[in-house]
Design goal:
This protein is of the alpha/beta class. Helix content is 44%, strand content 12%. The chain has 13 helices and eight strands. The protein has a six-stranded mixed β-sheet with strand order 4-5-1-6-7-8, with helices on both faces. The chain has a two-stranded antiparallel sheet with strand order 2-3. Helix 1 runs antiparallel to helix 6, helix 3 packs across helix 5 and helix 7 crosses helix 12. The longest helix has 20 residues.
Length: 318
Amino acid sequence: MTTARSQLISVEATPYYHCVSRCVRRSYLCGYDELTQTSYEHRRDWVEKRLKQIANVFCIDVCAYAIMSNHYHLVLHINTEQANRLSEHEVIQRWSTLHRTPMLIQRFLKGETSTEAEKNACLAIIRTWRERLCSISWFMRLLNQYIANEANREDGCTGHFWEGRFKSQALLDEKALAAAMAYVDLNPVRAGISKTPETSDFTSVKARIESLRKDEASAPSLFPFAGNPRNNMPDGLPFRLLDYLELVDWTGRQIRADKRGHIESAQQPILERLGLNTHTWLKICTQIEKGTLIGSASAIQSVLPQLNRQRRTGLQIP
């Protein structure tokens, strides 16, 4: 039995979520289908471009992504503060980037709404749009619908392209966030598609490395790293970029099948700060898709009321 989305996503519980969408049957999102001798590599570009387009409209930040052959991974951050700061006209402008603007709203923009009832109706619509701009369900809907339509048009068929629902996991603390991001960025390495993070095409880690080489402050359309956030600092991930890149590289080297040993003296700064040892970290990074809640036992217990749940189930991080 599926779990209600309201029991999986609650900004009061955590703003961070790991989401996965998979294709149905043998449908190919990207990659090369050996059975039909057909390449779908160009579809990776579809997903990446659409993802960035939606991220620039929504008040949802992309922390990490990896686009694979029959599925993709995202780590998302719900930015409710940004949504609340938007003016009514900014909400309309953003929503209209991806949708047609109703005639009533067009009249509102021109100052042509003459009655109180019309103005109230416009304000109600804008409130709904503001809520949707920080909704992961709407974010994933607009991404998946577009890709499904394009793929079905190219394949000359109709019907479902994706599984019925995307999978979401709540990331309840910094340990869970770091583990999920590293898990997502290392997908091509684990799958044997790429040898290193910097050669992993269509991943957030490669985009961040390319921006770093260009001396850019942050990769376009990705949630920046803020280090250890303090008051009056810009929003961002609670790690340093260089620490995170070292963590991803170190983790990737440990989980390779031909290198099973642990480097006991090579604990990275971020691991030390999060209070994780190497053995625990590697276990987490290979089991991240188990359960719908990820975090310490106390973190999981504390969010059960917000998610209207009673049982403390999920991947518990010591």
